């Protein structure tokens, strides 16, 4: 076993996983170590675990690594899980059965067998992890129940259900180890962003409105149809349709696809004069008071980059100038009858 100090990671209480570091010694260094040669996929270190040994040598042998998450996962929220694996050079087998299990408490083990937990994220059964040169990504997503605080990585199936193959026949050596052993690096658990297309609204012909919400890292966005959109590949395009249009947002994150829709209704008769008086200048802590305001009027305030800085579904003249930085903004007021008014607002100190 290598010297084990990659806080907050720890070994399972029975078996012996390994830790390799650029500052390691006695065969536990990187990139060269007692199992071969591999640079870290990320940073300066990685760990290694044996996930399978040929049953004739050591039935049901398993090693695992475990970590306490920074926070308990949120109920009903989807999470993207990923980590990278690479087969050691002196190893003869590769498997498909590498998974991540999330639980409310640390894992305990029967010393005679493998963990019998049901992992939430697994490498596909059809995808053999055989590469000794490159790092292969294992990823997936799941919806949390809300009590998960620990993650365990390893093989959770018995020998009889473990899919294994020769890792690299061209590199097979008589002295090679008849087990599946993986270096593991760059583990992440990220809360996924919900697909939000925005609120359906009324629009006067020739005007525009912003769809969606702020962007999340590692997310691909696609809007359809493209008619009237400023960009179909960002999270929050401006929409200027000429006719009533329902837009569909397709969002891909961690190989999971989510969709959401929003309908923009275009009015052709928007010539009726407004009965509102809306200020164009606020200073100090002055309140943004709209005369003639009716109940259930929606107010949205954007900065000049199109980012929403304030929103109310039933504005009560309670927005104040000191709630935002000094500068220019765009306000959008939508009445219960569907009248939409947009204008500039200057905030000073």
Record keyword descriptors for this entry.
mainly beta; 349 residues; 3 domains; five-stranded antiparallel β-sheet; Immunoglobulin-like
What does this structure look like?
The protein contains no helices and 25 strands. The protein is mostly beta strands and 349 residues long. The protein has 3 domains: 9-191, Jelly Rolls (Sandwich); 201-267, Immunoglobulin-like (Sandwich); 281-348, Immunoglobulins (Immunoglobulin-like, Sandwich), CATH 2.60.40.10. The strands form 6 sheets. Strands 2, 5, 7, 8, 11, 13 and 14 form a 7-stranded mixed sheet that branches. A 5-stranded antiparallel sheet has the order 1-6-12-9-10, with no helix packed on it. It has strands at residues 9-11, 18-21, 32-33, 36-37, 45-53, 65-68, 78-87, 91-95, 99-103, 121-122, 136-143, 150-154, 164-166, 177-191, 201-204, 209-210, 220-224, 238-239, 245-253, 256-267, 281-283, 298-303, 308-312, 327-334, 340-348.
Question: Which helices and strands occur, and which strands form pairs?
Answer:
Elements: E1 9-11, E2 18-21, E3 32-33, E4 36-37, E5 45-53, E6 65-68, E7 78-87, E8 91-95, E9 99-103, E10 121-122, E11 136-143, E12 150-154, E13 164-166, E14 177-191, E15 201-204, E16 209-210, E17 220-224, E18 238-239, E19 245-253, E20 256-267, E21 281-283, E22 298-303, E23 308-312, E24 327-334, E25 340-348
Parallel strand pairs: 8-14, 15-20, 21-25
Antiparallel strand pairs: 1-6, 2-5, 3-4, 5-14, 6-12, 7-11, 7-14, 8-13, 9-10, 9-12, 16-18, 17-19, 19-20, 22-23, 22-24, 24-25
């Amino acid at each position: 076993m290598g010297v084990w100090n990659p806080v907050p990671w720890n070994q399972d209480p029975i078996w012996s996983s390994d830790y390799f570091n650029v500052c390691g010694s006695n065969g536990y260094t990187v990139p060269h170590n007692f199992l071969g040669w591999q640079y870290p996929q990320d940073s300066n270190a990685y760990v290694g675990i044996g996930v399978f040994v040929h049953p004739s040598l050591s039935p049901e042998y398993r090693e695992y690594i475990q970590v306490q998450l920074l926070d308990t996962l949120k109920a009903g929220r989807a999470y993207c899980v990923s980590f990278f694996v690479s087969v050691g050079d002196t190893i003869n087998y590769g498997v498909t059965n590498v998974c991540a299990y999330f639980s409310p408490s640390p894992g305990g083990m029967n010393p005679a067998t493998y963990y019998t937990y049901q992992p939430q994220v697994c490498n596909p059964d059809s995808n053999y992890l055989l590469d000794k040169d490159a790092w292969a990504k294992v990823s997936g997503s799941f919806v949390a129940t809300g009590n998960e605080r620990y993650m365990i990585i390893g093989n959770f199936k018995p020998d009889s259900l473990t899919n294994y193959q020769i890792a690299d026949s061209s590199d097979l050596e008589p002295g090679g180890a008849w087990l599946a052993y993986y270096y593991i690096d760059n583990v992440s658990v990220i809360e996924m962003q919900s697909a939000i297309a925005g609120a359906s609204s009324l629009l006067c012909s020739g005007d525009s409105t912003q769809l969606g919400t702020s962007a999340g890292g590692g997310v691909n966005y696609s809007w359809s149809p493209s008619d009237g959109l400023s960009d179909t590949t960002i999270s929050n395009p401006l929409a200027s349709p000429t006719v009533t249009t329902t837009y569909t947002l397709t969002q891909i994150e961690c190989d999971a696809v989510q969709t959401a829709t929003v309908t923009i209704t275009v009015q052709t008769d928007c010539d009726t004069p407004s009965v509102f008086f809306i200020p164009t200048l606020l200073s100090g802590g002055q309140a943004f008071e709209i005369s003639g305001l009716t109940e259930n009027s929606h107010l949205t305030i954007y900065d000049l980059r199109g980012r929403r800085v304030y929103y109310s579904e039933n504005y009560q003249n309670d927005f104040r100038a000191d709630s935002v930085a000094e500068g220019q903004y765009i306000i959008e007021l939508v009445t219960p009858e569907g009248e939409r008014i947009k204008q500039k607002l200057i905030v000073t100190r």
